[in-house]
Specification:
Layout lengths: L3 E2 L10 H9 L12 H13 L7 E4 L2 H12 L4 E6 L3 H4 L4 H4 L4 E4 L8 H10 L8 E8 L10 H14 L2 E5 L3 H6 L8 H7 L2 E5 L9 E4 L9 H7 L8 H12 L2 H22 L3 E2 L7 E7 H7 L3 E2 L1 E6 L3 E7 L6 H12 L1
Parallel strand pairs: 1-11, 3-4, 3-5, 5-6, 6-7
Antiparallel strand pairs: 2-8, 7-8, 9-10, 10-13, 12-13
């Protein structure tokens, strides 16, 4: 690419430590379909980090696949999912959930978060049984599509709301690493997530892995026959070892947390640079996504040197742009971007 990319947090390959682990184990013969030594070790490490040594952990290649499998496995055909209107399943997955036969009930959200009030309203508005799809699961992203982060208290409030209405709580963890590393999480840990959610997944793709996500199922009622769901959806990889090696590396030496901390720190540098140059932020920077309001003319000049998404047009010849950092983001490019803003 001729420009430096702030488009996303997966433009690079994988963390060098993971690449080294893949290379070192490459010629070893291992059992297929996730029963290899590395996948077994990785599952144990993830379960330990979740504070539940016996919790089932399943590795899949991508986030849309994780969301699809979880939804299809947990819900009956007439059951629906409540989600923020900005939720990934509602806006960026080409109807994958609907293709399984499940309706998505969206609620408006200005910051990507869902509140108990939103859930109450959605349940009330879809309660004409049996003539409407039955709300049965709440879907939240942490961090959200706006980079905002749920605190432990907010998640507990959603848990209580779900319990009062008989809803399952599912957490999309594509960017769970940066959410847990954020100051806004109030010290939330993976063990907290596992104690609050019925089912969730941990994003590896955006946390330093070449690819891969880990589905974790704390709710015992949702665990049966999960391997069948994986196989039917094309998620049971013959060379499952590739996922196992990567997650063993992420969770064996603290790489998961280290990569997230780097991502968030660089995003804060970008956000501070935007503010120091006199421009506004469309949303407070809580993780590794920065949403800046910039003049369109300046966006055009910056685009000659950097790649990023123009997220939303605004009046007065301004637009919101999204800048995303990762464990691999070049700090000197962050400084160059900030310098160009100041100039």
């Amino acid at each position: 690419m001729t420009t430096y990319s702030f488009l996303d947090d997966y433009s690079e390959g994988c963390h060098p430590e993971i690449l080294q682990a893949l290379q070192e184990t490459n010629l070893e013969q291992q059992t297929g379909y996730g029963d290899d030594d590395y996948s077994l070790d990785a599952r144990a490490l993830v379960a330990e980090a979740c504070g539940q040594p016996d919790v089932p952990v399943y590795f899949v290649s991508g986030g849309t696949l994780a969301n699809l499998i979880i939804s299809a496995a947990a819900l009956r055909p007439y059951e629906a999912i409540v989600s923020a209107s900005s939720g990934h399943i509602a806006t960026r997955e080409t109807g994958a959930i609907e293709a399984t036969g499940h309706k998505i009930i969206t609620v408006a959200s200005t910051n990507g978060k869902v509140t108990p009030t939103d859930v109450e309203a959605a349940v009330a508005a879809n309660g004409h049984a049996p003539h409407m799809a039955k709300p049965a699961m709440l879907y939240v992203s942490n961090a959200t599509e706006f980079g905002t982060v749920y605190s432990r208290e907010e998640l507990l409030a959603l848990r209580a709301c779900c319990d009062s209405h008989g809803l399952l709580l599912m957490i999309d963890g594509a960017r769970l690493a940066v959410a847990l590393a954020s100051d806004k999480s109030n010290g939330t840990t993976l063990a907290d997530i596992a104690s609050i959610a019925d089912v969730f997944w941990i994003g590896g793709t955006k946390a330093g892995a070449l690819f891969g996500e880990a589905i974790v199922i704390p709710n015992e009622r949702l665990r049966s026959d999960y391997e069948f769901h994986l196989k039917q959806r094309g998620a049971l990889l013959a060379k499952g070892r590739v996922l196992g090696v990567q997650f063993r590396s992420l969770f064996g030496d603290g790489l998961f947390e280290q990569a997230a901390a780097i991502s968030n720190d660089l995003a804060q540098t970008l956000a501070s640079g935007v503010a120091s140059a006199g421009f506004a932020l469309a949303a407070q920077t809580e993780s590794n996504q920065v949403f800046a309001v910039l003049p369109n003319a300046l966006i055009g000049r910056l685009s000659e040197h950097f790649s990023f998404y123009t997220w939303e047009p605004r009046p007065n010849d301004e637009s919101v742009v999204r800048l995303v950092t990762s464990w691999a983001t070049d700090a000197s490019q962050v400084e160059r971007f900030v310098s160009m803003l100041a100039d």
